[in-house]
Amino acid sequence: MACKSRIEYEGAFYHVITRGNQKERIFREISDFRKYLSLLAAYKQRYHFRLYAYILMSSHVHEGQRFSWGGKSSASWPRNTGTQGER
Predict the structure, then answer these.
(1) What is the DSSP code string of 36-50?
(2) Among 6, 18, 74, 86, which residue's Cβ finds the most Cβ atoms within 10 Å?
(3) What's the whole-model pTM score?
(4) Cα–Cα distance, 41 to 51 (Å, whole number)
(5) Which fold has domain 13-79?
(6) Is the dihedral angle over the CA atoms 31, 85, 26, 15 positive or is it negative?
């Protein structure tokens, strides 16, 4: 069942969670964590959001973000579309 669309507010704080399918690992090696942080830095620069906190675990990620322009979806989507096989 699909999630309902969320209402987005300018300046709101969002708790963003990224999780592997069926709670599978999304990070297998230290290089996977480093790649994710590199992508996160690139998206932060591109979409101009504030990143207050993050935690990377083997099967999921938590991030605390604030967007001044009110659009969480477009910044979160690109990171969630990669596959584990990409290096």
Answers:
(1) HHHHHHHHHHHHTEE
(2) 18
(3) 0.72
(4) 10
(5) Alpha-Beta Plaits (3.30.70)
(6) positive
